[in-house]
Recover the amino acids of this structure.
């Protein structure tokens, strides 16, 4: 018999990948950059919200609808190694890492949906 409570508990204890992700418009390389403490989950959520047209950035939805799903890619840019940080410390690390990625990509000429 399957012990659902045990499976649920093990899942909650399992640390999910944490890091920076990007939604990339492959036509013009414009990006949405974000952070997450659960990368697999946020990637699935973004795929769903884009398809449903409920993404918080209208410009990205418009491009997605105009260019189609195949013109976009959701990609993990960087992962943090989780130690024993508090949620607050982890959030600060993610913000710093996000800023570094935005700075690097801007230097490479990338523009962003999230300003």
């Amino acid at each position: 018999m399957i012990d659902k409570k045990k499976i649920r508990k093990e899942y909650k204890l399992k640390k999910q990948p944490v890091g920076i992700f990007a939604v990339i418009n492959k036509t013009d390389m414009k990006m949405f950059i974000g952070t997450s403490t659960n990368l697999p989950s946020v990637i699935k959520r973004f795929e769903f919200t884009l398809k449903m047209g409920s993404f918080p950035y209208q410009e990205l939805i418009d491009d997605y609808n105009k260019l189609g799903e195949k013109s976009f890619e959701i990609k993990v840019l960087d992962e943090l190694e989780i130690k024993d940080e508090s949620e607050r410390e982890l959030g600060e690390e993610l913000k710093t890492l996000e800023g570094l990625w935005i700075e690097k990509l801007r230097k490479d000429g990338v523009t962003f949906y999230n300003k």
Notes: The two ends are 51 Å apart (CA to CA).
